[in-house]
Amino acid sequence: KKKIAVMTSGGDAPGMNPAVRAVVRAGIYYGCDVFAVYEGYEGLVKGGDLLKKVEWADVRSYLSLGGTHIGTARCKEFRERSGRLEAAYNMVINGIDALVVCGGDGSLTGADLFRSEWPSLIEELVSTGRLSSKQVAPYKHLTIVGLVGSIDNDMSCTDVTIGAFSALERITEMVDYIGATAASHSRAFVVEVMGRHCGWLALMAGLATGADFIFIPERPPSAQNWKQELKDVCSRHRAYGRRKTTVIVAEGAIDDELNPITSEEVKNVLVELGLDTRITILGHVQRGGTAVAFDRRLATMQGVEAVRAVLEMTPNTPSPMIGVLKNKIVKYPLVDAVKQTKAVATAIDNKEFDKAMGLRDTSFYD
Ligand code: ADP
Where is the segment annotated N-terminal catalytic PFK domain 1 (predicted)? Predict the structure, then answer.
C-alpha cells in the first residue's frame, strides 16, 4: 500500500486546511495510507508524534477552518543535511516515500533538495547502521509534489496560489470599512498590505476598491516625480468631488531607483496636500480567517491532482508543482517554477521591471 505524507510549511495561508483535507481523502480514495506531518519540516525531522496516520474523519470540517490545523513552522534543522537525514530516517521507518508539501517557494525548494539528496541520505542511514539494506530496499526514491500556499500570489508558472483570493477579499473588506470613516471625515488613508516582491494583493485590492493610487514593486514610479504625481492625481480626484483619498502601498513598494517607498513617506506627501491623513497597516488580519469559496475549490482540485501525480510519477519525472493556468489545473516542473519566481526578484533588483512582470506569468497581469 502506497504511503503518502502531507504537510504545510512556511507562512500559513487560508485554504491550506482544504488542501490537506483533499490530499487525505483523495489518498484514501485511491487506496493509499495517508500521514499528516505536524509543524512543517520540524515534524519530519523530529518524527514521533509529529508524524501520524490520518483517517477520513480526521479532516472533517477542514474546509471552513482558517490557518493550518496541522501547524506550520520555520525549521532551521531542515536547511542542514543532518536535519534532512533525520527526516529521511523518520519517513523510512514509517514506510513513507511520497510527500505532498503545501507552502511557498522556500518550502518547495527544500522539498526538491530533499528529493535529490534522498538516495545519498538512504545510503548514509545504511552505512552508519541505523537502517538495514532490507529495510530501505522499497524506498529507493522519494516522490515530491508541491502545492503553492501563499497569500501573496507570488509564484510564477501558476495564475494563482492557494490563499491569495482569501487575503484579497479580507483586504477589500477592510478598505471598504476604512472608506466609510474616511469619507465621513473627508480624510485620506494610506493602507499598507502584504507583498514583498509581489504587488498582486495591492494591485487587485486597488482595482476592487477604486483606490486613488497604488504602489507595487513591479511597476515602480519615477524617483524624481512620484510625489508630485501622487499629489496631482489625488487633488484631481478631490476636485471631482471625492470625499476620501485611498492609497494602497505594497509592503515591498519601491521607486524606479529601488529606494523603498514607505507608508510614512506617502502619508507626508498627502499631508503636504492639506489632507488629514492616517496610516492603516493591515498586517496579519490579511492571513487570518477562513478561505473564500474560490480557494476552497482551488485547494480541493489541486489536492486531488497532487495525489494523482504521486501515483503517476516515475523516478525520472521531475517533481511537479500543481498550479492553475487559464482555469485548468496543471503540473509544472517545480524547480523551473521556483527558478522563474526567484528571477522576478532578481529582475526587480536589476531594474528590469518589464521583465519582472513578464516572468510572473500570471494572466491577471495581462
Ligand atoms: P515559504 O515556504 O513560505 O517560502 P520559508 O522560505 O520560510 O517559507 O521556508 C519554510 C521552511 O522550508 C524553512 O523554515 C526551511 O525549513 C525550509 N526551507 C526553505 N528553504 C530551504 C532550502 N533552500 N533548503 C532546505 N530547506 C529549506
Answer: 1-366
What CA–CA distance (Å, rounded) separates 215 from 262?
10
**Ligand 1 atom 19 nearest Cα:** 106
Q: Are 147 and 303 in contact (CB under 8 A)?
A: yes
Q: Each residue of 32-48: pLDDT tens digit?
A: 999 999 999 999 999 99
Select from 7, 41, 107, 334 the residue to mutate for testing ligand 1; criterion: most ligand atoms less than 8 Å from CB: 107
The question of whether 361 is a catalytic residue gets the answer no
Q: Is 249 left (phi over 0), alpha (psi -120 to 50) or beta?
A: beta
Please check the confidence at residue 366 and state whether its pLDDT lies above 90: no
- Residue 29: φ, ψ to 5°: -55, -40
Residue 269 burial (10 A CB sphere; 0-12, 13-18, 19+): buried
Q: Residue 82 to residues 62, 86, 87, 121, 171: CA-CA distances in angstroms?
A: 34, 7, 9, 9, 41
> ipTM of this complex > 0.95?
yes
- What does pTM read for this prediction? 0.96
| Active-site residue (options: 12, 112, 152, 361) | 152
